[in-house]
Amino acid sequence: MFKITAKASVSAGIILHNLIDPTKNALLTRLMRRVHFTAAELPRPLAPSALHDRYENGVITVAGVHPNVGLEQEQEQTARVRLQRGFKLHRLSEGPDTMVSLTQAEAVRYYRQMKAIRQIEAAANRLYKERMVRGFCHLYTGQEACAVGMRAVMRPEDSIISAYRVHGWAYLMGLSAQGVLAELTGRRSGCSCGKGGSMHMYAPNFYGGNGIVGAQVSLGAGVALASKYRQNGGVCLALYGDGAANQGQVFESFNMAALWQLPIVFVCENNNYGMGTSAERAACNTRYYTRGDVLPGIWVDGMDVLAVRSATEYAIEFAQNRGPLLLELCTYRYGGHSLSDPGTSYRSREEVKEVRRKSDAINRFRELCLDYGLQSQEQLEEIDAEVQTEVQNAVKVARSDEELAPQYLWADVYAQNIEPRLRSVYGYDLMHARSKPT
Amino acid sequence: MFAWGVNCRNIRQHNMKVSVNLARGLFNALKTAPPALARSHFTYYPTTATSDKGDLQKMNMFQAINQAMDIALDEDPSALLFGEDVGFGGVFRCSMNLRDKYGKQRVFNTPLCEQGIAGFAIGVANAGATAIAEIQFADYIFPAFDQIVNEAAKYRYRSGGMYDCGSLTIRAPCGAVGHGALYHSQSPEAYFAHTPGLKVVIPRGPIKAKGLLLACIKDPNPCIVFEPKTLYRAAVEQVPTGVYTSELGKADILREGNDVTLIGWGTQVHVLLEVADLAKKELNVDCEVIDLVSILPWDRDTVCNSASKTGRVVVAHEAPYTQGFGSELAAYIQEKCFLRLEAPVKRVTGWDTPFPHVFEPFYLPDKHRCLAAVKDIVNY
């Protein structure tokens, strides 16, 4: 039921776009654009009261609809932008384009997505300080450009896997803000029904959300092999951080990917600190894009969403046709490693402020949009307000929704037991269940 | 016989209902209570120091461990301490000030590579230096599992005594902490108990932590110390400031009793002490509480003597039920003390699921479930 509703409303929007001439009716176009651009272009999820006992959550599948479909019609304004910083290449003679185009629609979308992620992380921070969110909470604040840039060129058949700093990715891969925040507070409408929490969020083609760093890279290699086997042209983006880049299993994955020519892009999100250890103190070679040895690599300015987009586009095409490669996104996180880490015992406040001032991804993109005339100040403020309302509503639900019943403690351990019950203290009497319908 | 069997089943069903009702009550209480209620499931029972090794100083568990490592690094010039983030003091502050005192050559950070840390530590120990390796959370010990089980445990055996990594000690924080979820709450002692060649210990408080760590460092076998992370701050005792060691392989009887033996380790010991108080008050049952302390080798004599005395044994641990260390205890006790047992050995443990996120209060073997088990075993 969800899938039909989602597809129908997006298709309706596309059809309307095609029928009405955008150049003649700017107001109507802007109103219609809302059909596309709420909740990262996906319809709002149902309110919790509409969810029935099978615990359908905020995950909405929009399979087969590429974010860019239907928007080629808008030819209002396209800017040609030269990227501020170039790329550094390892074992490549030519790299991604440094002259990129940006349409008005894309500008709105990227700005909106980055702003939404920033707001969701701020909301998560507030909820954590109020102890509504417990456990470990790793925020993506500052690194939004990486996720938004990569997502912009991912096709429906591509997949992504990352470690635990995934609230932003969960949002971009189709969860609503409610799906993310309710999962943080451990409620039913969260994406994993509250069973995973901050570190374990999943969505279609988004394999999480994994606790043990480095382990997800080998999983990504497996996902890439499956895509190759199924011949669907899909590429897997396997993300890891500068800390995890020193794990042995990452190098094992490089070797396997190169041997079997897997369609995988290894992405190192280098935010310069592995928890409290700066990259130079943890790695003998901090040029992470070269650590694939025979695998080619590209260094990208991770605070520039257009640079990330250009590099990812190049990388996806490369991975499909010429083999695996590495991307290193040089980025920065403003917060600490997690919310129990103030983030100032291993770096100075001035450093954080400096980065925020000079290279904040959202501010840079905002200025770019204004400079190239793609958006006006009012339009940007409108988007800000929209995003704020969306996140506020999500926070309301995250606070008030109910939790899974205790019986779901022993659900989802197996696909199905030979005996349908799990062992408890008194015998086999814990009824094994599944919290989502198969 | 038939009547007896029927009686047992009814009691079992009744007690299952009791536990579920207790759980339901707890759930309802938690729903309306402020989050602080769910913070810890135990009350800490301090131990009084019996040794006369130096003045007593009030300290918590991470300070006691810090002092133990200070002593070890001081006494043994070849001792090294390394792990992720130990340089600035460690995520639990166990290695505060040690780098300043002993220098970066002896106290240093490693990159994020548990398998590398373990392998490196084994090499250091083989060459004769003392290695104290820290794995940041016991949940992350699994990449190092191969090194510990296949290399460290078997080195002396396969080289016929020519090489050994006896001066290796691995420290890892383990156990539930209230909000750890799947990957910051595990208790992996059972996996390592299955490996001859290792020694595994779990302290219950600062005095024990300091003594056990010093004993492990001096012990000529590779040792693993699992420190319950929730006790790092919560456990405060008057700890002797001198040098002392606790005996490895020796269990402590914390409370004498005649009716039921309660066996646990780490944080669970404190839950069981509270259960013993409650049992005395509500059920008029006299419980003997044993802290096993050492998982491998474990103190068979103390446990079997106690089991023979009381005839009823309840084992409690946080790790899952199937193949948790309680199963080894139950198997051995019934083998050696069968005719003196009045009831089968009962185990109160975590469920056979991964350690949950929001369901932690229902997963842990808290005082309600343990008390229900005591009631059940007394009425067997």
From TrEMBL, chain A:
<keyword id="KW-0786">Thiamine pyrophosphate</keyword>
<dbReference type="InterPro" id="IPR017597">
    <property type="entry name" value="Pyrv_DH_E1_asu_subgrp-y"/>
</dbReference>
<dbReference type="InterPro" id="IPR001017">
    <property type="entry name" value="DH_E1"/>
</dbReference>
<protein>
    <recommendedName>
        <fullName>Pyruvate dehydrogenase E1 component subunit alpha</fullName>
        <ecNumber>1.2.4.1</ecNumber>
    </recommendedName>
</protein>
<dbReference type="Pfam" id="PF00676">
    <property type="entry name" value="E1_dh"/>
</dbReference>
<keyword id="KW-0809">Transit peptide</keyword>
<dbReference type="InterPro" id="IPR050642">
    <property type="entry name" value="PDH_E1_Alpha_Subunit"/>
</dbReference>
<comment type="function">
    <text>The pyruvate dehydrogenase complex catalyzes the overall conversion of pyruvate to acetyl-CoA and CO(2).</text>
</comment>
<keyword id="KW-0560">Oxidoreductase</keyword>
<keyword id="KW-0670">Pyruvate</keyword>
<dbReference type="GO" id="GO:0004739">
    <property type="term" value="F:pyruvate dehydrogenase (acetyl-transferring) activity"/>
</dbReference>
<dbReference type="InterPro" id="IPR029061">
    <property type="entry name" value="THDP-binding"/>
</dbReference>
<feature type="domain" description="Dehydrogenase E1 component">
    <location>
        <begin position="112"/>
        <end position="406"/>
    </location>
</feature>
<dbReference type="GO" id="GO:0006086">
    <property type="term" value="P:pyruvate decarboxylation to acetyl-CoA"/>
</dbReference>
UniProtKB/TrEMBL annotation, chain B:
<protein>
    <recommendedName>
        <fullName>2-oxoisovalerate dehydrogenase subunit beta, mitochondrial</fullName>
        <ecNumber>1.2.4.4</ecNumber>
    </recommendedName>
</protein>
<dbReference type="GO" id="GO:0005759">
    <property type="term" value="C:mitochondrial matrix"/>
</dbReference>
<dbReference type="InterPro" id="IPR005475">
    <property type="entry name" value="Transketolase-like_Pyr-bd"/>
</dbReference>
<dbReference type="GO" id="GO:0009083">
    <property type="term" value="P:branched-chain amino acid catabolic process"/>
</dbReference>
<keyword id="KW-0809">Transit peptide</keyword>
<dbReference type="InterPro" id="IPR009014">
    <property type="entry name" value="Transketo_C/PFOR_II"/>
</dbReference>
<comment type="subunit">
    <text>Heterotetramer of 2 alpha/BCKDHA and 2 beta chains/BCKDHB that forms the branched-chain alpha-keto acid decarboxylase (E1) component of the BCKD complex. The branched-chain alpha-ketoacid dehydrogenase is a large complex composed of three major building blocks E1, E2 and E3. It is organized around E2, a 24-meric cubic core composed of DBT, to which are associated 6 to 12 copies of E1, and approximately 6 copies of the dehydrogenase E3, a DLD dimer.</text>
</comment>
<keyword id="KW-0560">Oxidoreductase</keyword>
<dbReference type="GO" id="GO:0003863">
    <property type="term" value="F:branched-chain 2-oxo acid dehydrogenase activity"/>
</dbReference>
<dbReference type="Pfam" id="PF02780">
    <property type="entry name" value="Transketolase_C"/>
</dbReference>
<dbReference type="GO" id="GO:0007584">
    <property type="term" value="P:response to nutrient"/>
</dbReference>
<dbReference type="InterPro" id="IPR033248">
    <property type="entry name" value="Transketolase_C"/>
</dbReference>
<keyword id="KW-0496">Mitochondrion</keyword>
<feature type="domain" description="Transketolase-like pyrimidine-binding">
    <location>
        <begin position="59"/>
        <end position="234"/>
    </location>
</feature>
<comment type="function">
    <text>Together with BCKDHA forms the heterotetrameric E1 subunit of the mitochondrial branched-chain alpha-ketoacid dehydrogenase (BCKD) complex. The BCKD complex catalyzes the multi-step oxidative decarboxylation of alpha-ketoacids derived from the branched-chain amino-acids valine, leucine and isoleucine producing CO2 and acyl-CoA which is subsequently utilized to produce energy. The E1 subunit catalyzes the first step with the decarboxylation of the alpha-ketoacid forming an enzyme-product intermediate.</text>
</comment>
<dbReference type="InterPro" id="IPR029061">
    <property type="entry name" value="THDP-binding"/>
</dbReference>
<dbReference type="Pfam" id="PF02779">
    <property type="entry name" value="Transket_pyr"/>
</dbReference>
